[in-house]
Amino acid sequence: MSKIFIKIIFALVLTFFLVNCKDDSPTEPALGTGTFVSTTAQNQNVLLEEYTGVYCSYCPDGHRIADSLAKVHQGKFFHINIHAGSLSAFYTIPEGEQLRQAFSITAYPGGVVNRQKSYVYASMGYGDYFTMRGSWKDYSKEMTAKSAYANIAAKAEIVGRTLTIKVQIYFTDDSKVSNGENYVNIVLLQNNIWGTQSGGDEYYSAMWNDNTQKYRHNNMLRAMITGLNGESIGANTKGTLYEKIFTYDIPQKISNEDVVLKDLVVLAFVTEKTPADANTLPSTQSPVVINVCKSSLSIK
């Protein structure tokens, strides 16, 4: 076989591999391209951050009320159960305790609605942001009647144990705070965690198992993917479209509980200011939640 013929064969083989041996891994698996957040002005959705604990007998009643409000305001009301403080021996994470301290929560169940100051219970020593469970219905109705200057949407998928989230925020009007003072926040929740809960059988029997004497915990805060304060969005004037992809490696356990992929929920929300600013802002300001959404989530 001549050297020229061998060179021709080698060139053909090399060409075949260059053409056919390419990386087929997409850069955005299943998350797609284009704008999926609404660009039409909307009213606010509601984020209830409910501070709870396994040794709080009335906390299951708070869980029940929050679940009922989620049904009433379907797709407009979202809640996070944050285990923190002396009544929460289990299920705590550092950011949960940091949030409790930032919003000065000293009674359970206690709620912070869209991170707005309520002042109603401040005179009782519960802090400016604290709301009792009996008032969540009225606050939710009030929040959903307010216009939002930003919309938020998210898509997420899990491949192996890597969570990828694509977030889009569209400003339908100018922000009320300076450039860089709006923040994107992503939190990871988990449902169907069976364990201890005082008052579970009495105040939320639908979540109680008589046979095991255990309570089903839902909407439990497992991680703040963008950290306690979120991540600055940057430009925030009318017509601005923000988009970013975040990744998070899901651990096998959090606070000694198995992290079951099919039970995970991802919420994304946009705020003004941060929890770190909560107690330093003037009386007329708070680190308010402008809008919140539940991300779609697929598991590969």
Low-confidence stretches: 1-28
Q: CATH homologous superfamily?
A: Immunoglobulins
Shape: globular
Write down the Rg: 23 Å
How many domains, in number, for the residues? 1
Q: Provide the CATH architecture.
A: Sandwich
Mean pLDDT: 90
Question: What percentage of the residues does DSSP assign to strands (E)?
Answer: 25-35%
CATH topology: Immunoglobulin-like
Largest sheet: 5 strands, antiparallel
Tell me how many strands there are. Answer: 19
How does this model look, in words?
The protein is an alpha+beta fold and 300 residues long. It has a single domain (28-299), classed as Immunoglobulin-like. It is built from five helices and 19 strands. It has helices spanning 3-20, 59-72, 94-102, 136-143, 200-203, and strands at 42-43, 46-52, 77-83, 110-113, 147-148, 150-159, 162-171, 182-190, 193-195, 208-209, 214-217, 220-224, 231-232, 241-249, 253-254, 257-258, 264-272, 289-294, 296-299. The strands form six sheets. Strands 8, 12, 13, 17 and 18 form a five-stranded antiparallel β-sheet that branches. It has a four-stranded mixed β-sheet with strand order 14-7-6-19, with no helix packed on it. Helix 2 (59-72) links the parallel strand 2 (46-52) and strand 3 (77-83). The longest helix is centred in the first third of the chain and has 18 residues, at 3-20. It is globular, with a radius of gyration of 23 Å. Residues 1-28 have low confidence and may be disordered.
